[in-house]
Each structure stands twice: as C-alpha cells, then as structure tokens.
Design goal:
- By secondary structure, the protein is of the alpha+beta class.
- The chain folds into five domains: 1-125; 194-281, Beta-grasp domain (Ubiquitin-like (UB roll), Roll); 286-444, Threonyl-tRNA Synthetase, Chain A, domain 2, CATH 3.30.980; 502-513 and 548-747, Bira Bifunctional Protein, Domain 2 (BirA Bifunctional Protein, domain 2); 753-861, Rossmann fold.
- An eight-stranded mixed β-sheet has the order 16-20-23-28-27-26-24-25, sandwiched between helices. Strands 2-1-5-3-4 form a five-stranded mixed β-sheet.
- Strand 7 and strand 8 form a beta hairpin.
- Helix 2 packs antiparallel against helix 3 (76-125), helix 14 crosses helix 22 (736-747) and helix 19 (611-629) packs across helix 20.
- It starts with 9 loop residues before the first helix and ends with a helix.
Length: 862
C-alpha cells in the first residue's frame, strides 16, 4: 500500500493561523504587551516544532518500510526555518525585557530626582520647627528608598526575607527574566537605541509582508554547486543555508558566508533566481573579511551600550577589524576598559543575535540616524542610490552593505587589543574619533596562535628595529618623509643596485625624469580628474604645477618625443624617480605609508603580440628577486571588470596571453574574475614573510588607455605609422621604503650579509692590537664592506664580542698578538659559531664571494 505524506509550509501556517500576531501600537508604550505576545508566539511555535518532529519520525518509519514520500520530503529546511524564527523571537523577547527594565530605571531615576527636590524645598517651609523639618526629610527619604527597591535589595523591609543562597538564586532568576547580564554597561541605554529600533521594527514588518508575498509566488529555480551538481529550489524561499544543510550538516555548521553568482550572499537570504552557489568557510579570504566585519558589528553594539557615543566606520581590515566612535567632550578610551568591552562582546556572542538585512530609503535612513551626524554625512555624501541597506544584530542597527554571518554566536573567540585616536576620514581638520581594534576566530586555539604571532610581530616592528639599529627616523617638520641615516641608506642603495644589475641583464634602460610637471600633463593622463586631491600642487607664475605621484605619464612623453619603429619594441624604460603622494596625516604609518618614496618602476612599450613573452620575463624577474629575499608568493590573475574601457576582443586576447604566461611560469595561480582595472587586466602578486603575513609589493598591469590618451604610435612592419603600443606597468620591490619595512620585519633585524648595514666588526684583544685592527678594518671597508672596529678600551673582550653580536654584526673578527704577528683574524659569527683562525686575505675572499652571491645564510656557508 502506498502512503503519501505532504508536509505543509508550517512556517507560514504558524505565522498566519496558529500563532498570536504582535501588532504593538508604539514600541515604547506597548513593550509589555509585545513581550507577552512574543512569549505566546514562541510557545505556539515550539509546539509546532514538536509536531513537525513527530511527522518527520513518521516519515522516516515509512521510508524504512519502503513507502514513497511526495511533496516537500526534505523537512529539515522547514524545521530549520521554525528554529531560526524561534531564535529571533527569543532575542526580541530578551531585548524587549531589557528595554522595559531600562525604562523602569529611568522612571525611578526621575522619581528620585523629584523626591530629592521636595526634600530640598521642605526646610524652607519649616524653618521655625526643627522637628518638622527632620520629619519631612525622613518621610521623603523613606519614599525614595521605597521607590528604588529591587527584588535583590538587602533592605529588611523587603518581604519575605530570604536566606543568602536563596537571595542569589532569586537574583539570578530575575536578572535572567529581565535580560540583565551583570556586565558593565550604560543603564538605561542611550534613547536613540529605542527610537532607532522602533522605526526599524515598523519597516521590518512591512518588508516581511512583502517577502512573504514574493515567497508565495516564488518560481522553481536551479542551484548549481561547485562540483557541477544541480539542486532544485524555490525563488524567495530557498536559502544558501538550506542548501548547505542538504549537502552536509558539517558544511552548514562551519559555513561563514555564501557566494551566489560570484557575489557574497547572506546564508539566510533567500535566493532570487537560477544561480551558482558556493559555501565558504573561514579559510577563504572573502569569508574571513565577512567574519571580521560581523565581529566589528558586535564590537559596535558593545561600544554603544558601554560608551553611548556615535558610531562611525567599522570595517574589516587585513587582520581583524576596528570601529570608530565619536565621544562628546574630551572623553577618550582607555585600555583598562578593554576587559569590560570584551565581556560585553562575549555576552552578545552568547545571545546568538541574528543578523537581519533590510533595504531602506535614503530619506527614512536620514530620519533613523538623525542623532548621528557622521551617518548622515555618509548618506548625503557617499550614498548615490535612492535606497541602501542596514543590518541589525540585537539593539544595533547600522548602515552596511553586508553580508554577514548568520548570527553573533558564529563568533567564537574575540580579543580587543588596541585603541587609538584618529580623525574623521583621516582629515586633521575634522573631528577626533576613538578607534578600537579587535580580532576574532572560530575557535580559541586560533586566537592563542594569533596572540603568539602578535608578540612575535611586536618584536619585529620595523619602527622599533629602525630606531635601535639607527637606520632611519621621521620628523614632524616633514611628515611621511623618511630620513635614512648612513646605515639605512646603505640598505636603500643596495636594494636599488640589486635591481639595477637585473635591469642590465634583462634589457631595461634606466632613465631619469622630472619631479615637477604642469597640470596639463595630469589632465591628459586623467590623474588630475581622479587623483588631484592626492597630489602636491602649487602655482608657478600663471600655471599650476604638481609633484609627480607616478612615473608613467613622463615615460609616455619620452616615448612620443620622436617617431618610433616596431624594431625598437619592446622598449623597457626603468626609473627610480622620487615620487610624492599627499597621504592624509592620520594614515601615515612608519615606512609602510609615506608621502615621499621611490619605486623600482618600469614601463614596457610593446605590441599586442609581445605581451605573452614580456609577461614571462616579468614573472621570471620577480621570482629571481623574491628567491634572493627568501619570499614565497601567490599569483592572482584579475580580469575584465564590468565597467571596462576599450574593445572586448583586445581584452580577450590580452587575458589569454596572461593566462598562457602564468601556465608556463609553473607556479600555482588563482583567477580573480572582474577584479582588473578599467584600463586593462593585471597580475597581482602577494609575498609571504617569515611569520606568515602576506604583502602586496609587485604588480604587473596592462594598460590599453594611456597610449590612447597620449596618442602614442609606432610604425609597424607594414609601414602603418598609426599602430598603438600596449603599456605594461611593472614593479618588483614596489615602494623601496615599504620593502625595507617588510624586510626589516621578515629578518627581525638579522640582515643577510649582502644587505646588512653591519657586516664586519674588528675586536682587538688589547690596546696594543688596535692599530692592526684598524688596518684590517680599512681593508674590508675599501673592499665595499660595512666594517667597524671596537676600540673602547673600557670594555673587556667578551663584552665587546657580545655587543657586536647584539648589534647584529654578521662576522666578528678578533685580533690579538698572535693574529697580529701572522696577519690573521679569529672568525666567529653573531650566533657565536666559531670558525677559527684564518688569514685576512682568505676571509676577505670568502666574504666577498658570499656577498656577491647574495647568500641568505652566509654565517653557515662561510
């Protein structure tokens, strides 16, 4: 016998027919009724879950007996929907109760102030009778105490009196019922929170009704998974999370976010049409950014509840997240408050507050955020569409494009580790903001590993090492422009000479171009229209000039100053010219973000047919350089964006050549569809340092538009003198300043011999050997080594050797009477490896060979 079970849409049925519907007239005045209504709705839905679970069990029994199930046989998505709705109801109930408690405390505070006022006035009316005055004052205080009583009060008048243990249990019970977590926070919350929530709830009901209507009329859709499988769904009903559950509950539990048709998508946001679907875990870069963005919202909620200021921006960053807040007056944030903030964040995480997305008109949002001038600025200056989105978790509602994790409980471990002052949008003439940084992970083990990593990174900070080793410094009289001292300049020049040597081997021609250009050049290149605010410009006679922020427009002038032939191509022009960019003072950070810098900049002018071979040369160049430094690297091919310029056939041909060159290069690479620049595709390269951090330094970028803007042409093989070249923008080190910062931290100040600012230290055993030490030191200096002699007679021999090792001299050469007589030196390394006594000539020859070969472990290879 064939039994057919049809599972109805219990979720919609429950909402319409079986569950009490909550229609509060006002958020503030009807919170009690809403709480009761939500509690009733929660109870009714839990009953529906029990019934649904029973039906699922019956279905399973039927399946085990070979029965056929028709309809929505996969009942788990329905069950998940009910459970998700129940979670939302629980949190709404929790926050309603908290709101009621906050209002009660506000009312009591008002009552206290009123009674206090009566107490102050009473003596004026009864100045003739002291007894009356005291009596009046006593009555007033008595009333005040009665008004402010709590169920957990220690006042003996509280009835009935409970034992100590019973009091604690009763207090915890009542705190839980009222939503009191016991953590430090403002009581009551700022009034803008309840006003914001009231408007949001009203808009949410309207949106839910609209979504329900769309779901009713939803059409069947097909969802394609990464392995090629296709699953059926329903538009405006099926969610990525439901699809993940059908694949594997483990996948669903570990999912951070989804990618739908290449776009990041909330796991609980219904799919709208046929689509491709990927479920992303924390190990994906995009998923990490979403995870940290959601963590920033948790921090934002805690900051509002703790400080009560105005939130500004709260983005994810390369490793973690931050949130900016404006506080009235001279208030600031202290590191002593991190513990309380973390406790509040943990409370939010335990509550598993769902992230809700809502699209709202700009006009309504200006009303919602009228208390916050910064959000209003964002809406007026940044939002160019009629509507935009907000996300809610708990009492926090914030302007946000999203997407986010399903709920705050997905964040398992969080640490608040740093705070600073900054300016609104980095401009020193704007308001001062308080910025708080945090990090989060899916488990506590990862957080502990990160903390260990941070301690290691702190010890490697290039700013600290640069100061300790006397390499460079900054001065307020030239912000963002580094002063390289002799030893720092040695590193700077050695890097430049390394690249110059490779230029000669690879057919590049080094040029020198002006630092200052008329603004007409930048108008031609397009930088004046889109980049002028980042340029240092100034009037000269009747014109405006600017310091160059990049070399490419000047190189275009070099190409076009005379007719060019196909025989000259590829033309590879390299330039170490000084560049200036007007970075905001609030963003300047050591050598990693500066205003004055140099690049190992080069531009290759070539034909379309030469792109592939030139790309192979560029890739080989970067591998050669990064191997010397000891960096591994990642490659990403970024292809045509939606808003591209030029002929699509040219784009397709160029992208195919880039792909061919990457395949032949032999290193793994990834595709970043649509992430190219509007003027051409590119290859992005990220290097990995000694402690696992990734940095983008090198770039290889095709440009089809600059040759058009400058009307660059050459004479082709067929005599056509109007053939357009292609430009390849190429850098390996990138900014030399930034590369020095990365290398400093990568080596932790223990520079390899060829790059070291302290290569050789001569240590005389006694004053009689000082002249010999100086003569040997001179030999090494003349041979191109950074050599010194320690002639401080107040230090003992062992102290001198230890000082040299701590200063990171690669080799310490000890000379005594014996070495002086035989023209030898006794060699040891900074790691105290003793190589013994050798002739000066042999040591000089060995070190020269190690230096020229750019050996990374010269101390071991010696």
């Amino acid at each position: 016998m064939l039994f057919v079970f049809v599972i109805y849409d219990l979720f919609s049925c429950t909402a319409k027919d079986k569950v009490p519907h909550c229609e509060p007239r006002t958020f503030k005045g009807q919170r009690g009724d809403m709480a009761e209504c939500l509690a009733a709705r929660l109870t009714a839905q839990e009953e529906q879950i029990r019934l649904l679970t029973g039906e699922i069990c019956a279905l399973r029994e039927g399946l085990s007996r070979g029965l056929v199930v028709v309809g929505d046989a996969a009942a788990s998505p329905v069950l998940e929907s009910l459970r998700a709705e129940n979670e939302k109801l629980r949190y709404r109930l929790l926050h309603l109760r908290r709101g009621l408690q906050a209002e009660l405390e506000l009312e009591e505070a008002k009552g206290t102030r009123q009674q206090g006022a009566k107490c102050v006035k009473a003596p004026q009316k009864t100045t003739t009778t002291t007894t009356t005055t005291n009596s009046s004052s006593k009555n007033c205080n008595s009333k005040e105490k009665q008004t402010n009583k709590r169920p957990d009060s220690n006042d003996k008048a509280a009835a009935p009196e409970l034992k100590s243990g019973e009091k604690n249990k009763e207090k915890k019970k009542q705190d839980k019922a009222q939503g009191n977590s016991g953590v430090k926070e403002l009581k009551p919350w700022p009034t803008y929170i309840s006003d914001r929530l009231s408007l949001y709830e009203e808009l949410k009901r309207e949106n839910d009704a609209l979504l329900a209507k769309k779901a009713t009329n939803g059409k069947p859709i097909t969802v394609e998974l990464p392995d090629g499988r296709k699953v059926a769904g329903k538009a405006w009903v099926t969610t990525p999370y439901q699809c993940a559950c059908d694949i594997s509950q483990g996948l669903a539990d570990n999912a951070v976010i989804s990618r739908v048709n290449g776009e990041l998508w909330d796991l609980d946001r219904p799919l709208e049409q046929d689509c491709s679907l990927e479920i992303l875990r924390f190990d994906d870069e995009d998923a990490q950014a979403v995870y940290w963005h959601s963590s920033a919202h948790i921090l934002g909620e805690a900051m509002e509840r703790f400080f009560g200021g105005c939130l500004c921006y709260g983005p994810p960053i390369e490793n973690g997240f931050y949130y900016d807040m404006f506080l009235d007056g001279e208030k600031g944030v202290s590191s002593t408050e991190f513990g309380d903030l973390e406790t509040l964040c943990k409370t939010v995480m335990k509550e598993k507050q769902p992230f809700e997305r809502l699209e709202i008109s700009k006009e309504t949002l200006l009303r919602m955020f009228k208390y916050n001038k910064f959000k209003c600025r964002i809406l007026n200056e940044k939002v160019t569409t009629p509507t935009t989105t907000v996300y809610r978790c708990g009492p926090l509602i914030d302007l946000c494009r999203g997407p986010h994790v399903r709920h705050t409980g997905k964040i398992k471990a969080m640490r608040i580790y740093k705070n600073s002052s900054t300016y609104w949008e980095g401009r020193s003439d704007m308001e001062t903001l308080q910025r708080i940084y945090g990090i989060s992970f899916p488990d506590s083990k990862m957080l502990k590993e990160w903390e260990h990593f941070q301690e290691e990174a702190k010890n490697r900070d290039h700013r600290k090492i640069g100061k300790d080793q006397e390499l460079f410094f900054f001065h307020d009289l030239s912000p963002g422009s580094c002063f390289f001292m002799p030893r720092g300049a040695y590193i700077y020049n050695t890097l430049a000479e390394f690249i110059r040597g490779e230029y000669w081997r690879r057919g590049f021609q080094e040029v020198a171009s002006p630092n200052i250009y008329n603004s007409k050049l930048w108008e031609t290149s397009g930088h004046w229209q889109h980049y002028s605010e980042n340029m240092f410009s100034f009037p000269v006679e009747d014109d405006v000039f600017a310091l160059k922020p990049m070399n490419c427009p000047g190189h275009c002038l070099m190409f076009s100053h005379r007719p060019r032939s196909w025989r000259e191509l590829p033309l590879r022009l390299a330039d170490f010219g000084v560049l200036h960019r007007n970075e905001l003072s609030g963003t300047l950070t050591g050598l990693t973000r500066v205003r004055r810098f140099q690049q190992d900049d080069a531009h290759i002018f070539c034909t379309m047919d030469q792109i592939e071979s030139e790309m192979k040369g560029c890739l080989d160049f970067l591998r050669c350089v990064y191997d010397v430094f000891g960096f591994s690297f990642q490659l990403h091919l970024s292809t045509r964006p939606e808003k591209y310029l030029g002929d699509i056939a040219v784009w397709n041909q160029a992208e195919k050549q880039l792909e061919n060159s990457l395949n032949e290069f032999g290193e793994p690479w990834k595709l970043n569809p649509g992430d190219g620049a509007f003027y051409g595709p590119k290859i992005d390269i990220k290097i990995k340092d000694a402690i696992g951090r990734y940095h983008q330094c090198a770039t290889i970028q095709l440009d089809f538009q600059l040759p058009i803007r400058f009307n660059l042409t050459f004479v082709g093989k067929d005599g056509d003198d109007r053939v357009r070249p292609v430009i390849i923008h190429r850098a390996i080190l990138g900014s030399v300043e930034r590369m020095i910062a990365i290398l400093t931290e990568n080596y932790a100040g223990k520079w390899p011999l060829w790059l070291s600012p302290r290569q050789v230290m001569l240590v005389p055993v006694n004053p009689s050997c000082e002249d010999y030490a100086k003569s040997v030191c001179k030999l090494f200096t003349e041979a191109g080594f950074m050599a010194d002699a320690d002639l401080d007679s107040s230090c003992l021999l062992n102290k001198k050797i230890r000082n040299a090792q701590l200063a990171q001299y690669n080799f310490i050469l000890v000379v005594g009477e014996k070495e002086k007589m035989t023209n030898n030196v006794n060699v040891r390394t900074r790691d105290n490896k003793v190589h013994g006594e050798l002739s000066v000539a042999e040591v000089l020859a060995r070190l020269t060979l190690l230096k020229e070969s750019r050996c990374r472990s010269a101390e071991e290879e010696f």
